[in-house]
Amino acid sequence: MHGPDVRHGRGAPENRIPTRFGLAAREADGDWLDAREALDGGPPPLRTSVTIEKPKTIITRNTSPDIGFDRSINAYRGCEHGCIYCFARPTHAFHDLSPGLDFESKLFAKPDAAELLRKELARPGYSPRPIAMGTNTDPYQPIEGRYGITRSCIEVLLETRHPLTITTKSDRVLRDLDLLVPMAEQGLVSVALSITSLTPHVSRTLEPRAPSGRKRLAAVKALSEAGVTAWVAIAPVIPAVTDHELEHIVEAAALAGAKGCFYLPVRLPHEVAPLFRAWLDEHYPDRVEKVMSIIRSMRGGKDNDPNWFSRMRGSGPWAELLRTRFQIAVRKHGLNQDKMKLRADLFEPPQGAQLRLL
């Protein structure tokens, strides 16, 4: 470990505080101690603090033309998985917190999410379409075991027969099989497990607190065997670090019973770019310029391309090669044969408290 902010078991190698927004930080309500001990002679482990957040609404709307959902729920802000490439890291800057280690250790939880969801679904004129979970931070990161916010929201969606999609890097999703199976039987849910690498030493630095890729594959198999439609998201693909695993992950997904796969080239918006480069300096000093050069070749000569559509696909010869490799692999293994369309016609608005007593 070289950088002064590097912590064993954490993803970001530094903790720069941004100044883009200048908002006052909130006080944390409780924390829990990191279970890992510091390396001998190293810096102490970071405590993970959890701030209780009281939003007025829980469904986030978007009008982005290049993503397949128009509404989402994020039960938490920040994510202890610590994935260095996470495009949600810059959102912590809005709280005057660092997108680096703060993003992984200073978290926000929304315990009233299920109650807010019930109220929003009960509004006159509400029109159901699939709600996406896991689009910003992981709904099954470790603190879900303590707070159960994701589960409480799924309970409301099952009760109202509302369609749901989940994206996660954790096999903890299996803890909610008792809810997901009846939803799947009604065509209401699909789950995507994000698998970036199946190589343990890569995952340990890339996604230090997420379950291993093999555990995620086992979750895909368990979901599929239980009748829950499962997908594998190879997201992101990092050139010269994980791209050589693309075909192997597609094959493993097919063997695990996945319905299909999709992939996304790595994106480096705002503070993610310098964090990612610092991570390369720490863990892959022999190929920093090679990796960044390929990324810039896919992003119009820059570290990041924020434009609609191209931000998800990349452009140029390297991106086209990646796309061709992926298409050949999914055809070879018989994946992506048809699209999963979730039902929205079964939706029933939540009943009032008085009706639920009858």
Written description of the protein model:
By secondary structure, the protein is an alpha/beta fold. The protein has a single domain (31-336), classed as TIM Barrel, CATH 3.20.20. Helix content is 32%, strand content 13%. It is built from 13 helices and eleven strands. Strands 3-4-7-8-9-10-11 form a seven-stranded mixed β-sheet. Strands 1-2-6-5 form a four-stranded mixed β-sheet. The longest helix has 16 residues, at 317-332. The model is unreliable at 21-40 and 353-358 (pLDDT under 50).
Strand content: 5-15%
Q: What is the 3D shape?
A: globular
Count of discrete structural domains: 1
What's the total count of β strands? 11
Which class do the helix and strand fractions yield? alpha/beta
Helix fraction, binned, reads: 25-40%
Mean pLDDT: 90
Name the CATH architecture.
Alpha-Beta Barrel
List keywords for this structure.
alpha/beta, seven-stranded mixed beta sheet, single chain, disordered C terminus, 358 residues, TIM Barrel
SSE blueprint and pairings:
Elements: E1 31-32, E2 48-52, E3 59-61, E4 71-73, E5 76-77, H1 101-105, E6 106-109, H2 113-121, E7 131-133, H3 144-147, H4 149-160, E8 164-168, H5 177-185, E9 189-194, H6 200-206, H7 213-225, E10 229-237, H8 246-255, E11 260-265, H9 272-283, H10 288-298, H11 310-313, H12 317-332, H13 353-356
Quick structural overview:
The protein has 358 residues and is of the alpha/beta class. Helix content is 32%, strand content 13%. The chain has one domain: Aldolase class I (TIM Barrel, Alpha-Beta Barrel), CATH 3.20.20.70.
